[in-house]
Fold each of these.
Amino acid sequence: MTWCSRQPSALARSKSRPSARLPIALLLAVLLVLAGCSESEDRLNAAVRSFADALSRGDAAAAAALTTDEPAATDTLGALFASLGTDVDVKVGEVEEQDGSASFTLNTTWKFGPDGRNEWSYSTDGAATSDGDDWSIQWNAAAVAPGLDEGPLSYSTLIPQPAARVLDRTGAELLTQHVVTLVDAAPGADVNTIAALVNPIAPGITPQSLAADLEAAAGKPVTVITLRQDDLAPIESQLSTLPNVTLRPQTRLLVTDRTLASPTLSGLSQLWQQRTDAAAGWAVTAQTAAGPRRVGGRDAGPVGDIAATLDIGLQRAAEDALAPLPTPAAVVAIQPSTGNLLAVAQNAPADAQGSIALTGLYPPGSTFKTVTVSAALQSGQVAPDSVVACPGTENIEGRQIPNDDNFDLGAVPLHTAFARSCNTTMGRLAVNLPPDGLTEAAAQLGLGIDYTALGMTTVTGSVPVADTPALRVEEGIGQGKVTASPFGMALVAAALANGSPPAPAIVEGEPAVADRTPEPLPSAVDEQVQAMMRETVTAGTATQLQDIPGLLGKTGTAEYVDTETGDQRAHGWFVGIDGDLALAVFVSDADSSAPAVDAAGRFLRATP
């Protein structure tokens, strides 16, 4: 509303007296006044809109230029945008003019945090003054944001207190928040002294490596190392006195036992961060003369601990079992009755390749015979006691299949051929299956099924439909186009122990969801395969584990061609069932199953 719009015009007054005639000169004067009012109102609205638009762009200079105190406004607005950012939207509300001055309302929304999830909305009142035909915004910091007239504003995240922890299945702390310190070095720092101080902690840090890092940073500081408090304490005083070295404390989620390095920890850390972020609050604070005063925000909500399914004792035993192996190796242990992952371990060479325990795909070799014999039993072509041929080598549908070292058992019961790992027997059984026989039998045991699980990413493997007899022969012995991850083969063992694939989980009470539900495994088939796996340990290819009471197992050697050299190589596998524990051990480039079997033994003998 303006002064002009509130005054009754001469024309309006004349309408109340029908007999009166308005002189032409007076009418022209009224029209000129109205035109002047309209132009003044337009100029005022334009000034306020321009001020709001400049604030919305985060353009401190443009907004300040529209005010009555440009230097003060420039400083205040520049500091405001530097602190709160520029994700701000300012809308003009009401504008009223009277006697050369005006008032207006601004409706403002700031967005903070990831994806702008935190919003601060408020309305403020401002004033404008005219100077001839022009309008200026009366500078008042409170017209831009609450509390800005009392001091600079800052945004901060309010972390839930106490912070959530990640616990193992016994309630022991697995991941907790720790204070760590980043050691930053700027150009000119004494690389020799820095390296001498931190090299005992991180042998890879040398004067040469530090110099190279600083050169690559092109004049910017580099973070030399991140140290826990117990590592920092002995050298903190020396580091803090070095020129061009800065120590920056931060809070991070770390493994309580730093010797543990499961690939599942990254997924659990991400889940912890998601839940912490969702519960986090925030605050916009004015730094007043009397101290900080919150002018906007939301309190942090409660956040509970995350109960992981891992068992720290089993995890440590699995990592220790893999430590002596020089090639990438992994162990996955699942509780068949629940699907809970109890241990997921890798050695250092495997860590360099990524999360091979959960997502690495390899030919499973003879461990896949658990699937082949399951399919053959279901097809009705054999029973556990059926006598089958196990020649040392056989040409099956044009594919020459040898046994290991061409051993020849002659005619033996199926359970013996399985326990001794007869390739020729399994190849002959597979070729008589329908094209999708192995695909469906694998799915019944969880292999080839995709699972979506909270806190982890997994891949089980792939068993393509075998359209040709030759491909069925190769797939029957875990070669050809069949692939499996250590996680996938552990799930196969768990399914045989449980009678069906359990829904895998890394967080208690949060089972994975399968992308499809295959036909159930017929009753008795699981028990028949279990009996054959028991014979594998007592009188087959895994007799070095027969001291472990009741253990069931299946060994596997999976051939592959080295793409760089063209040489024929082999991975080693072992899958087993020990009571309510199912496991898979994978050893890359092992030449045989022996290293995997030995690692399984070290793991199982170390567990209660």
Note: The first helix runs from residue 3 to 6.
Amino acid sequence: MFSGQAEKMIDRAFEALENSRENHDFTLSIKETGFITSVSTGIVRVNGLPGVGFEELLKFPNGLFGIAYNLDEHEIGVILLGEDSLLHVGDQVERTGRVTDIAVGNALIGRVINPLGEAMDNKGEILTGQRLPIERPAHAIMDRQAVSVPLQTGIKVIDALIPIGRGQRELILGDRQTGKTAIAMDTILNQRDKNVICIYCAIGQRASSVAKVRANLEENGAMDYTIMVVTEGNNSPGLKYICPYAATSIAEYFMEQGRDVLIVYDDLTNHARAYRELSLLLRRPPGREAFPGDIFYIHSRLLERSTRLSAKLGGGSITALPIIETEAQNISAYIPTNLISITDGQIYLSPKLFELGILPAVDVGKSVSRVGGKAQLPAYRAIANLKLDYAQFEELESFSRFGTRMDENTMKIIEHGKRIRICLKQQELHPMSVPEQFIVLLALTAGILDRIPVEKMQQAQDALIESVRLIPADTLENLFANKKLPDQHRQVLLNIAEEVLQSVHPQQATTTKD
């Protein structure tokens, strides 16, 4: 309790302040501040700020920001979003009263930004009228609808055997330098004129790798519908940690406008390592392989945001292609198995196939799409036995290397399999349209290409691709229709293939297998 004299002094002080406010028109505000007690690589510890909330954005000197992450009794562990070399013990820290957010809008299309929304392409400031928190709850199950619309990658082996739908989450995994980013790039290039916004999220990549991706996108005109959200290897672990969440918030903005979005996370291995580094610096207890116990949660809450919204919410979608790097082909390691269980399938790239020059090096046996034919154009069901034929060939091929004498039927399977392998090869940065893919694969499954010598297979493929211009308009329309390809249109395509391949290998017969 105050004494009577103290109460009079307080009353006079408030009266003086009120008079000053009336005379000078100012307002009083209370600002909660603290100070830095220690600085480490990527994190700082702060004292004070008793009212701070979890994941609140804090402001430091030199224009730096951080995220309040550890709320201990006597200090706060803060993830720094910038260079720790600019801060010192004793520097003042202020609360902002908001969580980390990022600018969203159409102005971002064609731009290269960092996870804080700052431009990195020397094209000037990005002006947008809306911001979204980087951490947002995923849409409820009742707000979603089934994945049924295909997202064509332009890669024959994926579109035919491991189809991806709009709203699906398909993991790309394999050892380093096996072509994981190349598959993502082809998929982005194939979205031209398909009304799909693409977001390439580079997490801790080398500057040279990011520059190469950007150059490929610009050279092929893909930056017209692409946003790049970039952190490089020398950036702070805090920026690497928030990078995929920021990119997903941008994707959600477009999805909620009814647009379809493709987002590539390249790669979540670096994301997991950055979070492990932050957790150990914050003295959180390590678990398996020194990763913290919530490493599964940080990836599941990220990928759960990719979905296809119901029609009443606009029907927009986010298709996620997370990339993960395996070590020595170990797909049963901690982080790969986590992500395999979170996603709706995986595309596994084999270093053995890569070394043999079979590109893209997709191991069909270890790859799967849990959505499957539900998100594939019905016309592709005409080549449904392709995966089985290829699996039989791979098994028999291993026996044939021992010099075992083969019967005629087995030799036919092996010769057919060799042509499947050649047809599934595809040059990087050259995605193929549905008609181009389909006429090649239909000729393959019908047995027409079995009579083409192996050395002429590439010439035969090129001739079939050129023949797409001969396909009648009604047949083309049926290729994209939501129904099985009628037999008469299938025969039209086979007749075109037979006629074109006569010029490649005139001796072949004109009969096809059923």
Note: The chain has 15 helices and 16 strands.
